[in-house]
From TrEMBL:
InterPro entries: DIOX_N, IPNS-like_FE2OG_OXY, IPNS-like_sf, Iron_ascorbate_oxido_reductase, Oxoglu/Fe-dep_dioxygenase_dom. Its EC number is 1.13.12.19, 1.14.20.7. Belongs to the iron/ascorbate-dependent oxidoreductase family. GO terms for biological process: ethylene biosynthetic process. SUPFAM superfamilies: Clavaminate synthase-like. Residues 167-269 form the Fe2OG dioxygenase domain. It comes from Caldimonas thermodepolymerans. Keywords: Ethylene biosynthesis, Iron, Metal-binding, Oxidoreductase. It is an enzyme of class 1 (oxidoreductase). Its cofactor is Fe(2+). This is 2-oxoglutarate-dependent ethylene/succinate-forming enzyme. Coiled coil: none annotated.
Amino acid sequence: MIDISGLSSSKHEDRKAVGAQIRAACIEYGFFYVSGHGVPQGLMDAALEQTRAFFAQPDEQKAKVARTKSFCNRGWDPLKAESLGLDVPDNKETLFLGLDLPLDHPAVVARRFNHGPNQWPEGLPGFKTTMRAYHAALRDVSERMMVGLALALDLPEDYFEDFNDTPLSTMRLLHYPPQPVNAGREQVGAGAHTDFGALTFLLQDENGGLQVQGLDGEWISAPPIPGTYVFNIGDAIARWTNDLFRSTLHRVINVSGKERYSVPFFYSGNPDHVLECLPGCLKAGESPRYPAVTVEKHMQECYRRAREAASSYVG
Ligand SMILES: O=C(O)CCC(=O)C(=O)O
Ligand SMILES: [Fe+2]
């Protein structure tokens, strides 16, 4: 558990102390809980409440905002439309939201990957206002966390300022129906995967089900701790740090017997930003493992791989 409130301190040593904790956790696990993030509890609760309300609607209603109607990957995917483990379909349904940009925004006109407007469901009072406020709050926390990462890597605190410009920042509302305790391989809420982008902040309800792979391959439960986020870094940061920081496998198996809801927020940064080995990440004698690539290209590659795997069993 890392309390990141020190990142907002006026004292450099307070900020640096948080950076040191982030460094240690990212090297060892790539996963930790975050407290002191400043997102009001009421907003976290409201985001989950609205998520339940969205999925409680009949499928015909949800299909009005189907992801297939969006050019920028926003909208609803029904149950079993995705396979994060790249083998069996995930027992979950999802609504993709993101930075809500109008059609005439330069990044949308230029067709930057995944940039564009959200599809907002109708007939859910407070849904749009809540989700917009939640997205803005998580964008703010993400910017602070990028300062934490800069400190963790002994870089200037404003090192990632460009990265934060018009960021790819996807929010997924997720609904996992219950599955049996002895669920076989065919039944997983979300198959084992690493996240594609830079940062993930996971808001989950009280039912649990997230598991993170430990160093010797065992699955460790990451149950909800009220008021906190489960945080992890994704493949972009692993790539950027030449795998000094770990992008760790995780999965979801909902054996609570109840409907489970969660809202991960994925922060991947400005599509034009170039991911290349960061200063200070090479050990003696090591050279960069990955060629430089833009965020956009990196994300497109990750999506393409997932899509190809999914199309092998979905219609
Ligand atoms: O729902 C969760 O707890 C985790 C979801 C997840 O790992 C993902 O969507 O990438
Ligand atoms: Fe994930």
